[in-house]
Amino acid sequence: WDWGHTLQRKWSKSNVRINDRMIFLSIHWPSLITDSVSIPISKDDVALYYAGFCKSFLWTILHYEVETLFKRKEWEAYKRINQRFAEAIVDIYEPGDLILIQDYYFMLLPLLLRQKLPSAQISFFLHAPFPTSELFRVLVVREELLKGLLGADLIGFQVCVILFLSKVLQS
After folding, report:
1. d(CA 166, CA 153)
2. Which run of H or E residues covers position 26?
3. 116 with 85: CB under 8 angstroms?
4. Which residues are registered as beta bridge partners of 125?
5. Calpha distance 165→89 (Å, rounded)
C-alpha cells in the first residue's frame, strides 16, 4: 500500500465505474486503485483495524476459530476506521444514491450512515459465515456489531440467514 496518498474528493467521469444504468464509486483506503476515493489510514491503524480486529478477531470468530482474544485497542481502531468511511461517504452522498457496504470490515458502517443519512438506501453484504448464537453471545461487542448491521435496509449473506435472524430475535 502507498501510504502517501491523501483523500481525493475529485468527482468526475474518470473516477467512477459506469454501466448502462448505474454509477459506481469505490471508496477504500489507499492502494493501487486510482479511479476511486481513497481514505488515508496510518500504518498503526491498519495494523490494529485490518490485521488486528478484522483478521485476527472477526474473521476467526466468523469462521469458528474461537481461540482468538478480544483486544480493546483493535476494537477502537475498528470503530475509528468505520467512522472515517462514514464521514467520507456522507461528504459525497447525493439523494437517490444506493450505498452498498461489503463485508465484516464495515459492520458498524450501516448504522453510522443511517444516523447521518436517515433516508439513504443502505445495503450490506457479509461474505463470511455468521456465527452461531452460542458463539456470537460471547462477543464483548456483539450488541454494537448487531446494531451496526441493522442500520442497513437490506442485509445479504453468503450463507444461511437463520443464524443472523436468531440473534436479532433474541435481542
Report:
1. 18
2. none
3. no
4. 102, 156
5. 28
Q: How many whole angstroms from its chain centre is CA 141? A: 15
Kindly report, residue by residue over 72-126, the tens digit of the pLDDT: 999 999 999 999 999 999 999 999 999 999 988 999 999 999 999 999 999 999 9
User: CB of 129 within 8 A of CB of 63?
Assistant: yes
The three grid cell numbers given for residue 32, joined into one nine-digit string: 493501487
- Position of cell 456470537? 136
Per the prediction, the chain carries an average pLDDT of 77
pLDDT at 145: 95
The secondary structure element, H or E, covering residue 98 is strand 98-102
> Residue 128 carries which DSSP code?
S
Task: Decide if 150 contacts 110 (C-beta within 8 A).
Answer: yes
